[in-house]
Design a protein that fits this description.
It contains 17 helices and two strands. By secondary structure, it is mostly helical. α2 packs parallel to α14 and α8 runs antiparallel to α13.
Length: 390
């Protein structure tokens, strides 16, 4: 007898829901306008004020950067984005690296345009992956696993930075050390919760029940059928299979991505004349990545630049040069990703799609099943490829 999982058909109620599409509301509009306004204020006034410089002095430094150097920095940025595709393909088998690159730059561009743009980026990723035939369950698992890998990486960076500063550098400003320590503790907490949920089904169930109790006032949680805890348990089974087979690729991609980002940060500072020993430079880089998690502005723009520039100036760097270095780095990791993401959207728009109306998710896998995730992650072979735009 052929099971529903084998033919790719299941009860629609058992399928995970798609990420909610961003909808227009006045509150959302005010959030976007307020976030962009705050970013402009921080970059226009707070950054030069706390770095003890002026934009005219910063612009004079930036004008001296050769075009060949600027292009080399761009190639370094693209290499980092390409290395991150190993994280995406590790969480979603059968996804080609070219399509993973399109998903990466497209989602990043959306996230960099909106305050707390992670939800919009996830919706964009879902839309593209579904158009290529991947199941909802495989996509949701990929989003969760890569999200956890990103959070852990960004929060574990301060642990390395603090260790380097303690053993190889001089004293550090107590306020900066406390901020980094908060990030380090947060990284350890996230890692501990994630490992606990994977190691113990009972603990995972209890955490799910606690989340139901804590967020029961939210309609999505209150009206969820099956319950949120059951969703979490089912997602745990999928995540275990993905992590078991893809952890090495995902870790390689994450290390390569942040490694290239550190080199980009170092070259940006070195290009404008700011030079510090490795422990100092790495700590400043780790702080910049931690501050991007402050989502009151799109991608933490303004918050990260102001904090890192003030830190470098406090260590004795030339104010105009240090500010020019963080601005140059921000141009690559925030602003230049937007036109690159636009090209990614164009490539997706012009590329072939599959008819997702003919595909449904297989039933939730049993915890002891070993081959279910691979089948779920694979695009449906029965789908009809379309050459038209959708």
């Amino acid at each position: 007898m052929t099971s529903s999982a084998e033919v790719g058909v299941s009860d629609p109620a058992a399928e995970p829901a798609a990420p909610p599409k961003p909808t227009f509301t006045w509150a959302r509009l005010l959030q976007v306008v307020g976030g962009l306004g705050l970013a402009v204020f921080l970059l226009g006034w707070a950054l030069p004020y706390f770095a003890h410089t002026t934009w005219s002095d910063v612009w004079a430094v930036l004008q001296g950067i050769p075009a060949t150097t600027a292009f080399g920095l761009f190639l370094l940025m693209v290499l980092g984005l390409w290395l991150y595709t190993f994280t995406i393909t590790g969480s979603l088998p059968h996804l080609p690296h070219v399509k993973a690159f399109i998903v990466n730059v497209s989602g990043s561009a959306v996230g960099n345009l909106l305050p707390a743009g992670g939800a919009a980026g996830a919706a964009a990723t879902y839309k593209q992956l579904r158009s290529w035939g991947f199941t909802r369950r495989a996509i949701s698992t990929s989003l969760i696993v890569t999200g956890v890998w990103n959070i852990m990486a960004r929060l574990l960076l301060p642990i390395i930075g603090i260790g380097l500063m303690i053993f190889f550098a001089a004293d550090l400003n107590p306020a900066v050390m406390r901020a980094a320590a908060v990030g380090a503790v947060g990284g350890i907490a996230v890692l501990a919760v994630f490992i606990t949920m994977l190691a113990s089904e009972r603990a995972c169930h209890k955490i799910g029940l606690w989340l139901e109790w804590s967020f029961g006032f939210v309609p999505f949680v209150r009206d969820s059928d099956p319950s949120l805890s059951q969703h979490i348990l089912d997602q745990r089974h999928q995540t275990i299979a993905v992590v078991r087979h893809g952890w090495l690729s995902m870790t390689f991609g994450m290390v390569g991505f942040f490694g290239m980002n550190y080199l980009l940060f170092w070259f940006c500072q070195n290009t404008v004349g700011v030079q510090f020993p490795f422990p100092y430079m790495f700590f400043a880089f780790a702080l910049s990545r931690l501050l991007t998690s402050v989502t009151v502005t799109p991608g933490g723009v303004g918050v990260s630049e102001t904090g890192v520039a003030a830190l470098l100036v406090g260590w004795g760097a030339n104010p105009a040069q240090a500010t020019a270095g963080v601005v140059l780095y921000s141009l690559y990791v925030h602003f230049l990703e937007v036109p690159l993401g636009a090209l990614g959207w164009l490539a997706w728009w012009l590329g072939p799609k599959v008819d997702t109306t003919r595909t449904t998710d297989p039933a939730p896998a049993d915890a002891t099943s070993t081959g279910s995730t691979q089948a779920q992650s694979q695009p449906a072979s029965s789908s009809v490829t379309k050459g038209t735009k959708t």
